[in-house]
Design a protein that fits this description.
Elements: H1 2-21, H2 27-39, H3 49-80, H4 85-98, H5 102-120, H6 125-161
Helix pairs in contact: 1-2, 1-6, 2-3, 2-6, 3-4, 3-6, 4-5, 5-6
């Protein structure tokens, strides 16, 4: 049973890393569940159980914070660079459409979506480009946050596994 939980934990952690990049998969929460799987195995030694449980609590709080922030950072980026609701909606739609175009679509989708949304709303090209850039910065910052947390969870999972 321990081996099954470890394999499931590894699969969930890897899915968490992929989900940190793809906006349709909640990366850090899935990765956290993977990390939690190890807690219920004999790989976490009894004398290390309290330390690992504390680590799980810390990652639970960080996962919640990062997941909530991920919804606000792209919007903040768009607004910080002068975007309106149209730019924010455009960025969200651009992320979804960008999924169908691979990694380049994920990067350009929010930018082009915010730009298009602002242009449709009647803003000039310079303002629309600025809002698109803000959306892109927000999206990339969100990805970096999620990816950092997911990779850290993998690190602690494997360091505990090989201990």
């Amino acid at each position: 049973m321990d081996i099954l939980l470890v394999i499931l934990g590894i699969l969930l952690l890897l899915t968490g890393i992929v989900g940190s990049i793809l906006p349709v998969i909640p990366g850090p929460p899935i990765g956290f569940v993977g990390m939690l799987m190890l807690r219920f195995t004999r790989f976490v030694e009894p004398e290390q159980l309290d330390r690992y449980s504390d680590l799980l609590w810390i990652f639970a709080v960080v996962t919640i914070i990062v997941t909530v922030l991920d919804y606000f950072v792209p919007v903040w980026g768009t607004k910080k660079f002068g975007g309106s609701k149209a730019g924010t909606w455009g960025a969200a739609i651009g992320i979804v459409i960008g999924l169908f175009f691979g990694p380049i679509g994920l990067i350009l989708g929010p930018f082009l979506g915010a730009f298009t949304g602002e242009m449709i709303a009647g803003k000039d090209q310079k303002s629309s480009l600025k809002a698109g850039f803000g959306s892109l910065i927000g999206f990339l910052f969100g990805v970096a946050m999620k990816l950092s947390v997911s990779v850290l969870m993998c690190y602690y999972f494997f360091s505990e596994l090989v201990r």
